[in-house]
Protein 1
Amino acid sequence: MIDWLLSLEAWQQALVGTGFTYFMTALGAGLVFFFKEIKKDILNMMLGFAAGVMIAASFWSLLDPAIKQAEENGSIAWLVVSFGFGLGGLFLYIADKTLPHMHFGPNHEKEGLPSHLKRTILLVFSITLHNIPEGLAVGVAFGAANSADDPKKAVLAAISVALGIGIQNFPEGAAVSIPLRQENLSRKKAFIYGQASGIVEPIAGIIGAVLVTKVTLLLPYALAFAAGAMIYVVVEELIPEAQQTVTSKRHFAVFGVMLGFIIMMILDVALG
């Protein structure tokens, strides 16, 4: 498997990795054929789990390698990484304020430019928006392997990112399709919309891989950019939505964050 991946171009590796993460989204969305409802506590734990994975991946898979790469380039590491991190957050902020979408919270809060799109489409756009940095993270990780001193080790590290994102995409897919089912969509339509939210990941992944392989000096910036975008999603969307419940039950989201962080950290340390 590793040798086969090493024989591929960086963008092809990114396509394989993000293809897996998309598949896991679709697999999770498929749970709508077996369940019509999802308990709020379970949904909060799923959102917390996704947040934990993204937080851990932001440091172990993105920021730490970005710092090391910037130092190898002879750059001021803290300046490069800080700039890329901030730019990633700014990118998501602008996208958040322009792309029409609707949160899954009890108030169905609308954000972005005014739109006459159906509510179901706006709900899907909400998840699609934070799938962009996930796909970008996988793509940049595989792109980084292209110029690494030890390509095999770097590809293993990229695989850990894809595995972590894929694992959290499974409950995330269910967290999209099942609430859509509760919006009175048919199971088939809820699944189609749920899996569609993950299609953006292969696109973002290929773009990220191509960019860092064509312009290697962009690598530390791109790694930090993906990290900043993911942290923005965690703080702006995932954790607030996971905490929209009675105070006595907010620990479900906290347990999800802890579990997600631990799993992603283990994957990164073991494989990276």
Protein 2
Amino acid sequence: MKEVSRTIIGRNVKAIRLSLGFSLLKFSLATGISKASLVNVESGKNGYNLNLLDNILKFTNFTLTKLANETFKPNKNLREELLEKHKFNKDVQSYFFDQAPEIVYAIKHKLLSSDFFQSPREIREVRAYFESLGWHYKGTSISNALKRLNTQVLITAHPVKKNTFLYKSKQIM
């Protein structure tokens, strides 16, 4: 496999993992690939063969051709699609889909696209929103992630409460 192809495949595998809201560990467990091997795949390094990619292809239902495509982008609802694909596999369902996704996934794929986040919200409100989805995060984790996404999230000081911020989507729906 050429270096360029490994780089493209690695970038696309990482895009899939992130669009699922999986950590490296969670994705490695889901696909049956060691975490170290997954790091090698995502970084485009040599040292893995096509057989290793078979596990990723089986789990995700993508083809090698799609993974090697430079313009590949996972669907926004990939998590839901894979939940449907694995609906009879209780191990996959319970461990990978009943747990809260990574916080960045939760913000990008649920919070930012919701009507809820079109109005300024305190962290306690955002936390309650996620809890309504069955996802539990610490307020500090939410706050830190929102600050890192400052191109998508507007952060302003609360007009009345000291040391409190309000968060809202910069995206216009």
